[in-house]
User: Which sequence fits this backbone?
């Protein structure tokens, strides 16, 4: 079983930056595709970014492309989300997730990011 714990959320002004971290435990996630999702108040959870395990291809939602960067450190069993040029619309609870097949099997409990205008 894999446990995922997010950290790094907080309050930041518009235009600022935050770096989210996701620490995995229980087993290595080096062979997993890892991703970040977010859920804003009153909205459904949405995809933000993902990174594959083998070639480390990255994928981004259009709304964050060019501003957010996902990365991973397999030696540390961790995944990161660097968020720059933050906007109030980025305010949400951010979740780390992992999968080995088509479904996202593992989820963290989330970390809150609040962007003030």
Assistant:
């Amino acid at each position: 079983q894999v446990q995922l714990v997010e950290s790094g959320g907080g309050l930041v002004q518009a235009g600022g930056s935050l770096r989210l971290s996701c620490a995995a435990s229980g087993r290595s996630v080096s062979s997993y595709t890892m991703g970040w999702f977010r859920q804003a108040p009153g909205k459904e959870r949405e995809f933000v970014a993902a990174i594959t395990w083998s070639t480390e291809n990255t994928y981004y939602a259009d709304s964050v492309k060019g501003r957010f960067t996902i990365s991973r450190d397999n030696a540390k069993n961790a995944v990161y989300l660097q968020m720059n040029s933050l906007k109030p619309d980025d305010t949400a609870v951010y979740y780390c997730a992992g999968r080995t097949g088509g479904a996202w099997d593992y989820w963290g409990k989330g970390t809150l990011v609040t962007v003030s205008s």
The first strand starts at residue 3 and ends at 7.
